Amino acid sequence: MSDLSADPLNFLQQASVEGRTLIARTFTEKSAANGLGAGWEDLFSQAWQVWFGLGESLLEIAGAPQDDARDKRFAGQAWREDKRFAVLQRSYRTYAHFMQRAVDSAPVDDNAKGQLRFVTRQVIDAMSPANFLATNPEAIQLALETQGQSLARGVELFLRDASKGRISMSDENAFVVGKNLATTEGAVIYENPLMQLIMYRPLTKKVAARPLLMIPPCINKFYILDLQPENSLVRYALTQGQTVFMLSWRNITPELDTLHWHDYLHQGVIKAIDVVCDVAFDDGATGSLPKQINTLGFCIGGALLSSAAAMLAARGRQEIASMTLLTTLLDYTDAGEIGLLINESSVSGREQSIGQRGIMRAKELGMSFASLRANDLIWPYVVNGYLKGQSPEAFDLLYWNADGTNLPGPMFAWYLRNTYLENNLRRPDHCLPDGSRIDLRQISAPTYVYASKEDHLVPWHTSFESTKILSAPTTFVLGSSGHIAGVINPPAHGKRNYWVDGQSAESASAWLKSANSHTGSWWPHWAAWLKQNSGGMVPARKVLGNHRYPPTEAAPGSYVQVRCD
User: 10, 20, 230, 347: least CB-packed within 10 angstroms?
Assistant: First the structure.
């Protein structure tokens, strides 16, 4: 075999012959072991020739190499040391730029242009030469150095992921919920078919008189807020003198496939509020303090919390003393790329297929979200795993990201139409399927609205619109980074920054110009704001639950343990 740096084209030609035989044989053996037919060998052989033919044609393009240090896909030395690979990736970037400019100049409206941009980016990302063995010099070199073992391992990883129906982004053997994730001490004190309610053991001698109830997103597990001790928002709140309760959503099964949005409000959020009030105010320690609690909602959990708060307000109930909304949309006028991909046809299709009963699978939702950032959440794991045979590293955030929950079809279909498509949540007196009316302006609780500047799911300038919808006092805080990393940013890490104290403004950009930037985590700022709504300090409870709601099992509970795989 010739040396890669000495004669790349001859190297690739030899690699094509020898590598194709090795990979096809390995692929056939592994496929047979997993019960797949022999036709895989012919399919792979044809795909290899297509990939290699494309690579060889591009390699013949003459020109000076040009690097882009910002593109991680081509950061390896192999892409720069040989001018043919350098020209290959340069040609790809040039063509990608041409396609993007063509879309930008297309004579269509903004909505259609946004859809075109998304589709074009998916095509551009997929056609990267880094994604194909025959045009990825790093993968080829590694295959030779390991005598094909990297390719054999890549086939194993591919078949393993194929059996799961998703791409592995983290070492899933490194984490066990309840062992090294979601380990904060507590107990389940209530459950119904939709949710479990966890009460955590206080960590301080005195605690805020008003407890804190957290409502996580129902499309993922609650432990994003309680990952490991060093990055657990639950544990941080406990160290700040809060008594914390957590709602843990059920992973929907066929017997629950008729549940609706209002069921999530009544059986989920409002029932949790009732139980927390009963437990927190039954021992007389809070004196004459009204039965009010502080609440926190994350992402769609924030939309559910806000809907429940409006529903309670319409009934003259004031159990909510404050709300914290993390990366939450209440106005869906500009919902980013997700909004662009949702239209009448797609929503009607969902309504016809699962609108009356059925399940929206977590795997499908997860892949849809990942496609919004394919170069971060799809292709790196394809290249490193399937082409290089490298197992993903242990990463708690990505492990959680893959641990989704199924949703009931009626609830999901209603949510799509009434938020992304018709933007009904912000409309006064909007009627829910059960006849309940929602008017977010009736919420009187002061609200802490947090958004992340690089959030691709909840655009921060749209999250800012919540400050205009809610009539109660609002505090808007903008953190750096994205949808998850911006939220899970513990102070001890000393990372990132956040903006606060912007002047009241009609636009988010105007607010940002007048806001003050602070280095580090926004958590201490939130803790100080929450303390203002604490109702004073009282001795911490020694017993979890009460005689009506006694502990039934240790945290994190059984509902969170059920996976979709």
Answer: 230
pLDDT in tens, 479-512: 999 999 999 999 998 889 999 999 877 899 999 9
Do 260 and 218 contact (CB within 8 A), yes or no?
A: no
Active-site pick, 218, 299, 431, 564: 299
Q: Which residues contact 352 (CB under 8 A, 6 or more apart)?
A: none
Is 299 an annotated catalytic residue? Answer: yes
Do residues 309 and 453 share a domain? yes
Residue found under tokens 């280095």: 519
Amino acid at 491: P
Classified as helix, coil or strand, 297 is strand
Contact indicator for 114, 107 with CB cutoff of 8 Å: no
Identify the sign of the CA torsion 370, 372, 377, 378. Answer: positive
Contact 551, 188 (CB under 8 A): yes
Domain that holds residue 111: 8-164
For residue 69, which of 61, 58, 77 has the smallest C-alpha distance? 77
Residues 191 and 337 in one domain: yes
Q: Do residues 13 and 46 share a domain?
A: yes
Whether residue 518 lies inside any domain: the answer is yes
Joined together, the tokens standing for residue 388 give 């290089």
313-344 residue pLDDT tens: 999 999 999 999 999 999 999 988 888 888 89
pLDDT digits (tens, 9 = 90+) for 449-477: 999 999 999 999 999 999 999 999 999 99
**What's the number of domains the chain is made of?**
2
* CATH number of the domain bearing residue 411: 3.40.50.1820
The string of pLDDT tens digits covering residues 15-53 is: 444 444 544 454 455 445 444 444 444 444 444 444 444
Domain assignment present for 356: no
3-class DSSP string for 177-199 = ECCCECCCCEEEEEECCCEEEEE
> Residue 448 belongs to what H/E stretch?
strand 447-452
The verdict on 190 and 153 lying in the same domain is: no
Cβ atoms 412, 360 nearer than 8 A: yes
Rounded to whole angstroms, the Cα distance separating 411 from 524 reads 35
Locate 271 and state its tokens: 């029932």
Number of CB atoms found within 10 A of residue 234's CB: 25
Q: How far apart are CA 262 and CA 258, in angstroms?
A: 11
Q: How does DSSP classify residue 343?
A: -
In a 3-state reduction of DSSP, which class is residue 404? strand
> CA-CA distances (angstroms) from residue 350 to 218, 258, 384, 416, 439?
18, 14, 35, 9, 27
Residue 386 has which token pair? 């399937």
Whether the Cβ atoms of residue 490 and residue 523 lie closer than 8 Å to each other: yes
- Residue 251, exposed/middle/buried by CB under 10 A (0-12, 13-18, 19+)? buried
**Which of 539, 542, 547, 551 is closest to 198 using CA atoms?**
551
3-class SS of residue 220:
strand
